[in-house]
Amino acid sequence: MKTTEFEISADKYGLKPVGTIPTASSRLLSLDFFRGLTVAAMVTVNNPGDWGNIYAPLEHASWNGWTPTDLIFPFFLFIVGVSITFALGRTGGMEKGVIGKIVKRSVTLFLLGLFLNFFPKFDITIVRIPGVLQRIAVVYLACSLILLKTTPRQQVYIFCGIVLGYWFLMTVIPVPGVGYANLEPETNLAAWFDRIILTPAHVYKPAKVWDPEGLLSTLPAIGTGLLGLLTGTWLRSNRVAAEKVAWLFATGCLLTLLGLLWDGLFPINKALWTSSYVLLAGGLAMLGLALCYWLIDVQHYKRGVLPFVAFGVNAITVFFLSGLIPRIMNLIHVTQPDGTEVGSKEYLYRTFIAPHFADPKNASLAGALTFVLIWFGILWWMYRKNVIIKV
User: Which end of the chain has fewer CB within 10 Å, C or N?
Assistant: First the structure.
C-alpha cells in the first residue's frame, strides 16, 4: 500500500496508522494544528499593514466585551495547559531534574519576552516588564508544578478557587486611594497593583498606569491554563474517543454559557482577564479543540492540516521572530519619492500592497496576510526538514 503524507506525519507524531485511535501516550496532531491556527491568527492581528485601518473583528474590544481577536491569547494559554499534560504526563513527573527543566524553560520564555520589550532602546528605566511571553512563562510554570503536585480533582478545586477568588478581589475589596471596588480602567484593584509593584515606568505605554498582562490579572490567566490541563488529562485517558469528544463538547458549552451569564455581574474583559472571560474563552477553546480532535485524530481528516501543523510545532519561534523582525525593519529607513523617510516594512507595504486596493482596510488585511504567508513558506520548509526549535 502506498504511504500517504498523512501517515508519514502520523508516524512522526507518535500516532497510530489510519483507522486507530490515539492512545494516552500519543502526541495529538490536532493539538499541533490547533496551536498553529491560533499562532497564525496571532501573527495576523499583530501585524496589520496599517494600524489605522483594521476591521473591527481584528481589533481588541476597547474595554468590556470581546471580539474574535480577544480569544487568541487565552486559546494559546489553554493549549499550553493541554500540552503540559502530554509533555509531563508520560512519566508522571518522575523524570530526574524535571522541575529544573520546567523552571529553565519558564525563565527562557520570560527573558525572550523581556528582550522584545527592551529592543531596540535597551533602557532599563522605562522597559515594560510584563508581556505576552512573560505571561506564557508564568502560566507554564504554575500549571506544570500544579500538574506534578496535585490530582485532577484538586486541580478542579484550584481552578474554582482562582475564578471565585479573583471575582471577590475585583468586585468586593476596596481599592486603596479610591475607597470602593470598581472595574474601571485606571482605578480597579489590578491597575492599582500594577502601579504599586511595577510603577508607571514599567507597564504598557498606551495604558500608562496599568498593564493588560499585569500582575494580578495573571492569576485568572493561570485558571485558563488549568482548563487546558484538565482537558489534556481527559484526552490522555483510556476512554473511547466518542466519549471524550461528547464530554468536551458538553463541558465547553456549559463553560461558555456560564461565562455569558456571569458577564452580567463580572463583565467579560480581556484586559482584566475577568473570571467570566476565563469561562467564555476556555469553553470556546475546549469546543475548538474537541472539533479538531474528532476530525483530525479520530476521523483522520487531513486536507489543509499540515501547513498549520508546521506553524504549531514552531509556535514560540514564529511568535518571537514575527515580533522582532518588523522592529528591525522599521530601524532601516527608506527615502520615499516625496523625500520623507519611513521604515522599510512600511515602505514595502506602501509600495507593493496598498496601491492595489481601493479600500484601506482591505489593503491592511492583505499586508497582514502577506506577512503570514511568508512565514508559512519558511515554517513549511522547516517542517519538511524536521527543524524544530525548542525553547
Answer: N
